[in-house]
Amino acid sequence: MSASSPALPFLRAPGAPPAPRERALAALPLTVLVGVTGVGKSTALAALTGADAGMRVLPDRREVTDAVMILPATGGVPVRDREDRFRLTAAYRQSHPGGMAQALGSLIADVNHWGDAPVFDGLRGLEEVQYAAATFPAWRFVALGAPDAVRVRRLLGRADAFDQVGAGGGGALREELAALTGVDAVFSPAELDDLAALAQAGFAPADVLAKVKIVVSERRNYDPAAAEAFLRTLPPARALVLDTVALDPAGVAAAVRAWAGGAA
């Protein structure tokens, strides 16, 4: 990654001594969102960056992943398919056990642009969170969770061009869902029945299959429940864990604002 690359403006890899306006992200009091796709991080992000908070948002996980993990491995060729991205990021973690936390913490930031306490979206899974908490004591965390079946429904309800995987075509949706590698470790037969029934609710079978595949793929690489359990062991001022089913979006936003104000 070049210094302050277009993908990561006002951020660079270590190397040259820091300029007066530069600081390592490792030393800044970052607020880090923790959670997998479809848990409601956008609501928390809006609460942290609203008019009252005014925190700057660093390039997100996708952008850092591209610049630090994927493009160097592919010779600069972009990768959009989620399965291929998971494979490449898993390879990165073989030599960088901190995963995204390690990648982010290695960067140098221009604080004139990003401020002294930016927000990052986000970390996933126990290993990344443990690494970040142990290695970067100034960082604090907001974790959001939701059941996997809820996450599928939320993904179906949004139009995100990034949510692309190779979805199968033809055949009964229930059979295709059952054939996904690792699906039994994530969804019960009854949950798969309910997800297959979404086709009768007006959702395209290929879309349902694609969203379920995203959730299953993420769960093969990240365990959100383990990450949340670990964060609950940290002091309350350092970690906030929220159930985004028990709380509606307004409740999530209020809890995040109250915690950010009290932890500041």
Structure description:
The protein has 264 residues and is of the alpha/beta class. 46% of the residues lie in helices and 11% in strands. Strands 5-3-6-7 form a 4-stranded parallel β-sheet, with helices on both faces. Strands 1-4-2 form a 3-stranded antiparallel β-sheet. The two termini are 32 Å apart. The mean pLDDT is 87.
Mean pLDDT: 87
* Oligomeric state of the chains present here: single chain
Main sheet specs? 4 strands, parallel
- The Rg value, from CA coordinates, equals 19 Å
Strand content bin: 5-15%
| Count of DSSP-assigned helices | 12
Per the principal axes of the C-alpha atoms, what is the gross shape? globular
The termini sit apart by 32 Å
Would you list the SSEs in sequence order as H and E?
Answer: EEEHHHHEHEHEHHHHHEH
Going across the biggest sheet, name each strand in turn. Answer: 5-3-6-7
Helix content: 40-55%
Number of strands: 7
Regions with little confidence, pLDDT below 50 for 5+ residues? none
Secondary structure topology:
Blueprint lengths: L10 E2 L9 E3 L6 E4 L6 H9 L11 H14 L7 H14 L3 H7 L2 E3 H4 L4 E5 L1 H11 L4 E6 L2 H9 L16 H6 L10 H8 L8 H17 L2 H8 L7 E5 L5 H15 L1
Parallel strand pairs: 3-5, 3-6, 6-7
Antiparallel strand pairs: 1-4, 2-4
Helix pairs in contact: 1-12, 2-3, 3-10, 4-6, 6-11, 7-10
Quick structural overview:
The protein is of the alpha/beta class. It contains twelve helices and seven strands. The strands form two sheets. Strands 5-3-6-7 form a four-stranded parallel beta sheet, with helices on both faces.
